[in-house]
Write a structure and sequence with these properties.
The chain is built from ten helices and 13 strands. It has helices at 68-82, 98-103, 119-128, 130-133, 149-155, 180-188, 207-220, 254-263, 274-280, 285-291; strands at residues 14-18, 24-28, 31-37, 42-48, 52-57, 60-64, 88-93, 111-116, 142-146, 160-166, 190-201, 223-231, 236-244. The chain starts with 13 loop residues before the first strand and ends with a helix.
């Protein structure tokens, strides 16, 4: 979780997401489907009016049926469309299957390896989050590995066209996966035209986390392109980034992106298109100050 972010609901049945110790928002739970402790974290699934089934880990919102596309489409397609022809991908985390589902929309994709440390996340996704993974967890092109993503990347000899870090927030147990050493290990696992994407934090609530995150990426990759998306479940504006040795998504025009969407047979996009590709990388002045 980001520094300063806390867990704890305002009252029973009122699911509360704190962005900082002073700010946050709430969603009422209509029904609690699951709440249990896995070997790694507290796992919950709730039914809600605005978001449908809502998935939480350690008291923090991860994804939901009705707004998952804001997060997953932007996490994947900014880099995937910029790549000339992605065939192989690695997802670290992402046991809900949402990132895998977006990658598997590409006709060129031959294999996706998903490395999730907590089997409980995958089991919950299979049981409750069909609207998030849309069958991707059973796709024959997908290989599931239940193991530590950090150890997997460091021990792997495989290389990939795309790496998607679909992680819990920095500041908690996943903190080592936001550090320079891990980014360098990921860079070594990319093909020559490959790229890595990840989410970082809110530029409004966590400016220090943005500065640190972008600096760490730049210590490992020569090309780092930050971009923004508004995610309802995360309380507003959120930064993601694409990092690479050679690939720069800002060179792709809206027309280029739309042509590639059509040529690659990508369907069922609810957020991403050529205009949004370009718009995501248009940073407000206060955000530019954080990343320059």
């Amino acid at each position: 979780m980001p520094e300063g972010r806390t867990a704890g609901d305002l009252q029973p049945g009122v699911l509360t997401e704190y962005l900082t110790e002073e700010t946050g928002f709430f969603v009422r739970s209509l029904r609690e489907y699951e709440r249990f402790q896995s070997p790694y974290q507290t796992v919950e699934v709730h039914d809600t009016a605005p978001f449908g089934k809502l998935f939480r880990l350690d008291g923090h919102f991860m994804t939901s049926e009705k707004d998952e596309f804001f997060y997953h489409e932007n996490l994947v397609h900014i880099a995937a469309i910029a790549h000339p022809s992605p065939e192989t991908a690695l997802v670290v985390g992402g046991g809900d299957g949402g990132s895998a589902e977006e990658l598997l929309k590409y006709s060129s994709i031959k294999s996706v390896t998903l490395v999730e440390i907590d089997l409980a996340v995958i089991d919950i996704a299979r049981k409750y989050l069909g609207e998030v993974h849309r069958g991707s967890l059973a796709d024959p092109r997908l290989t599931l590995k239940v193991e530590d993503g950090l150890a997997f990347v460091r021990g792997s000899t495989e290389t990939y066209d795309l790496i998607v870090l679909d992680l819990t927030d920095p500041g908690g147990p996943s903190e080592p996966l936001y550090e320079v050493d891990f980014y360098r290990a990921c860079a070594a696992r990319l093909n020559s035209s490959g790229a890595m994407t990840l989410h970082i934090a809110s530029p409004v609530a966590h400016p220090d986390r943005i500065r640190t995150g972008i600096a760490n990426l730049r210590a490992a990759f020569p090309i780092v392109v930050p971009y923004l998306v508004s995610i309802p479940l995360y309380g507003g504006l959120w930064m993601m980034a694409c990092a690479s040795t050679t690939l720069n998504p800002s060179y792709i025009t809206p027309l280029d992106a739309n042509r590639r969407i059509a040529k690659r047979g990508i369907r069922d996009l609810r957020y991403y298109n050529g205009d949004m590709h370009r718009a995501a990388m248009a940073l407000p002045a206060f955000v530019r100050e954080l990343v320059e």
